[in-house]
């Protein structure tokens, strides 16, 4: 048999195998998503379920957090309290997942787990792969802030606009009896405690 014919024979089997693989959502105790993932991966290995449970994902995205004038990149859970599992649904695989410590239930109607649509899974995975992390700011438009760096250090003002893409904020500062907009980096302002 030629190499080409072998590939053609193997291809339909893998397509059939992929047809009954679906993504399901399991509900966990909040804050235990990563622990549930580790527990489930361990159970898949020890109970030899690799042929029925294929993938376990805790959907996260990178976010830049600004605290005390420092930028930190953190992993933020997209759906707190939920974990995605790619599996063939049958009594054995259901039992292994459902009885994993920290798992409270499958998401679905009644006792019947409902698989995610392919488009939903693609959207979640695409969101996880986004290159630029989002910047999380602790202030909002209309909020009072204090400038901590630059020529207007120690001035107070009101947030007029936030540009997440550029990491900039426009603050209305009052000096000489007039209000003037000043564009600053997120790191150059801090929220005033009210």
TrEMBL record:
Any Gene Ontology biological process: regulation of DNA-templated transcription elongation
UniProt keyword Repressor, yes or no: no
Q: State any GO CC term.
A: cytosol
| NusG-like N-terminal domain mapped to chain residues | 20-128
Checking CDD domains in the record gives: KOW_NusG (cd06091), NGN_Bact_1 (cd09891)
Taxonomic superkingdom? Bacteria
- Report domain KOW positions: 138-165
The family database entries (SUPFAM superfamilies) matched by this protein are listed as: N-utilization substance G protein NusG, N-terminal domain (SSF82679), Translation proteins SH3-like domain (SSF50104)
Name the Pfam families for this protein: KOW, NusG
Q: What does this protein do?
A: Participates in transcription elongation, termination and antitermination.
Describe the family membership recorded for this protein in Swiss-Prot or TrEMBL: Belongs to the NusG family.
Q: Which NCBIfam families match?
A: nusG
Entry's HAMAP family? Answer: NusG (MF_00948)
State the name under which the record lists this protein.
Transcription termination/antitermination protein NusG
What is the native source organism of this protein? Roseiflexus castenholzii (strain DSM 13941 / HLO8)
